[in-house]
Amino acid sequence: MELIYQYLTGPRFRHRIQAIVEAFSTMKEDLEREKKVITKQWAKRDEQIERVMQSTVGMYGDLQGIAGKTLEEIEGLSFRALELPSGGERQ
Length: 91
What we know:
There is one protein chain. The chain is an all-alpha fold. Helices cover 76% and strands 0% of the residues. It contains three helices and no strands.
């Protein structure tokens, strides 16, 4: 018991705990940096996809205006497919 008490109250144990805390702090900082980068990349891709979808739907609408009902419906571009679900988010 005395040896354990000396170890726990001595500098060696304190240094080990400090090293663990420093390692966790560094890991947390790295994780936060990665999270910011990934969030930025995700937002950029999401915006790109949104622009492509808007352009595609616009072009399809232009073609429907020109060709009328002779242009077959394309699944995913119909009005029903583009409506938001009751949760308010696109699937």
